[in-house]
Amino acid sequence: MHLKIGVDLDGTVADNLPLLTDTLNTYCGKKLRCEDINQYDLCGIYGISEADFFSLMGTKEEEIISRCPLIPQAREYVEFLMRDGYQVHIITARHPGYKQITERWLKDNGVPYSGLHLLNSHHKLDTCRKLGVSLMIEDNVHNAIQLEQGGVKTILFTAPHNRLWPWNGLRCRTWQDIYRTLQEILHSSLAATP
What we know:
The chain is α/β, with parallel strands linked by helices. The protein folds into two domains: 135 residues, Rossmann fold (3-Layer(aba) Sandwich), CATH 3.40.50.1000; 51 residues, no CATH class. α1 crosses α3 and α4 runs parallel beside α8. The longest helix is centred in the first third of the chain and has 18 residues.
């Protein structure tokens, strides 16, 4: 039996950080690079209020969603997972109002999936439980900790904003690493089955 896998979207499949950084640099008059984003709290890094951030995203988020490129190898390895019989559920904190543009982006970029879940929240544990997701691929270390503590094995996808955070779980830098790690997990669980 194959696992049901949850995959975060932004920062894991969709490479939105460069566009977010450019947008915030323009808005705040700064010149930060993606490598300078060493935490998930963009408001703290840029010194802006959440209200200002949400107002800016209200005018720029659709453009960011539609223009962001794929994370290298994401499409190919999600295709491999689907081909291997895994159910791949994309579970994202995006607002459900962005469902159509998200579906279009996934289609235009050839990313297959079994289900798309836009939560408007970073609390993904309940959705993972409802879907029967056994493993989640996530770039937000706070989400990863919550998922692990809730019993959902999580692979933290390395990103500038999580590289300095302590993480004792699985961490992968590329989609090839993710695929290899999943194969090792499956092999280990099969070997442990009598």
